[in-house]
Predict the 3D structure of the following.
Amino acid sequence: MRAQDAGPDNGFGSYHLVDGWGASYPETTGYALPTLLALSGRLERPDLFQRTVSAANWLLDVQHADGGWAGEGSGGSPLDAYSTPRR
């Protein structure tokens, strides 16, 4: 939850020992969604379900018109073929 709370956009970023929390990016956010969704039901935690929805909405917001996502550090283009199929 700290990764999601660290940024302004409801996505998940990385943590660097020197630099602290990084910006949200699609790969990390996509990895978090199944876990949050499973935990929200198993633990009966609607707040975790809402976090899942918020993160999924962020992914939709940053998705490109052709359905792909830019990779972390790409500045929005070109699309990262590695990250796109992992969603």
Summary: The helical segments are 2-6, 26-42, 46-62. Strands lie at 15-16, 20-21.
